[in-house]
């Protein structure tokens, strides 16, 4: 047990899927894992361990924002030995050609202020995905004919953004979408020699204003979960 995870040693699999939303964790575990068992509910942050095609997998909520993700990823890595961490999140599109419900594989994640800035200070460190996971996920998405984009994303510290000028520049520089966790996940994975990837489903569009309701963000992003599970064991 840790401060934030009530699981016993051995309850957490080496492969962990990390949605921000704990209810998305419950939905995905019940839909895609065989014999899912609840292994954590401290603070309502649900985690389940089961198997996928015979492979052990944990699906655990990470909360919203990099400080929250950092707590769970640190404990999953350092206390429970997680080796492969795949974020399955929602994101807001920042390009016209990236549509609602499309999937984005985050090759790199720019940020203005992750918890790791305290270590890296003035350095503009480039947090990147594990290439093996990224290429496997891309192959799976293409084979399943899922609309998929690969490229840079923005990990923001704020959902209610008041810097339209910054978003405009990020769009101009090819950023595909905005979310709030991937940059810190990639930085922690690099620090501890683990594999990480963020797979995102577009839930809303910063240019068109289109947006999916909360229940659909919780339970309708199956393609992303299947890509994550297949890529983890490719
Ligand atoms: O749907 P999740 O995985 O929580 O991801 C996105 O949704 C939350 C904001 O609504 C942030 O956590 C953001 O990164
Ligand atoms: O962080 C996020 C997640 C989804 N949509 C957004 O606009 N921002």
From TrEMBL:
Keyword Glycosyltransferase: yes
Top-level lineage group: Bacteria
Enzyme class, first EC level, given as a word: transferase
Keywords from the named record: Glycosyltransferase, Transferase
Reaction(s) the record says it catalyses: a purine D-ribonucleoside + phosphate = a purine nucleobase + alpha-D-ribose 1-phosphate; uridine + phosphate = alpha-D-ribose 1-phosphate + uracil; a purine 2'-deoxy-D-ribonucleoside + phosphate = a purine nucleobase + 2-deoxy-alpha-D-ribose 1-phosphate
Gene Ontology molecular function, alphabetical: purine-nucleoside phosphorylase activity; uridine phosphorylase activity
Sequence ranges assigned to domain Nucleoside phosphorylase in this UniProt record: 16-221
GO biological process entries: purine nucleoside catabolic process
SUPFAM superfamilies, per database record: Purine and uridine phosphorylases
Record-marked site positions (Important for catalytic activity): 217
Location of the active site: 204
Gene that produces this protein: deoD
Protein name: Purine nucleoside phosphorylase DeoD-type
Binding site for a purine D-ribonucleoside: 4, 179-181, 203-204
GO CC annotations on file: cytosol
Family note: Belongs to the PNP/UDP phosphorylase family.
Ligand binding (phosphate): 20, 24, 43, 87-90
Assembly information from the UniProt record: Homohexamer; trimer of homodimers.
Summary of the function given for this chain in its UniProt record: Catalyzes the reversible phosphorolytic breakdown of the N-glycosidic bond in the beta-(deoxy)ribonucleoside molecules, with the formation of the corresponding free purine bases and pentose-1-phosphate.
EC numbers on record: 2.4.2.1
InterPro entries, alphabetized: DeoD-type (IPR004402), Nucleoside_phosphorylase_CS (IPR018016), Nucleoside_phosphorylase_d (IPR000845), Nucleoside_phosphorylase_sf (IPR035994)
């Amino acid at each position: 047990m840790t401060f934030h995870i009530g699981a016993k040693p051995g309850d957490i699999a080496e492969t962990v899927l990390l949605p921000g939303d704990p209810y998305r964790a419950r939905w995905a575990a019940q839909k895609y894992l065989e014999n899912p068992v609840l292994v954590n509910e401290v603070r309502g942050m649900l985690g389940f361990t089961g198997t996928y095609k015979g492979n052990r997998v944990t699906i655990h909520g990470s909360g919203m924002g990099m400080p929250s993700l950092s707590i769970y990823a640190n404990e999953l890595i350092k206390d429970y030995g997680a080796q492969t961490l795949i974020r399955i999140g929602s994101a807001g599109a920042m390009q016209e050609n990236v549509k609602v419900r499309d999937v984005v594989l985050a090759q790199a994640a720019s940020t203005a202020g992750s918890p790791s800035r305290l270590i890296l200070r003035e350095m503009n460190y480039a947090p990147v995905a594990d290439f093996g996971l990224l290429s496997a996920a891309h192959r799976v998405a293409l084979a399943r004919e899922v609309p998929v984009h690969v490229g840079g994303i923005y990990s923001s510290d704020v959902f209610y953004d008041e810097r339209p000028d910054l978003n405009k520049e990020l769009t101009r520089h090819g950023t595909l979408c905005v979310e709030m966790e991937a940059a810190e996940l990639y930085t922690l994975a690099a620090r501890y020699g683990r594999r990480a990837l963020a797979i995102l489903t577009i839930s809303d569009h910063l240019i068109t204003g289109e947006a999916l309701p909360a229940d659909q963000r919780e339970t309708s992003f199956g393609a992303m979960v299947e890509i994550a599970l297949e890529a983890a064991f490719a």
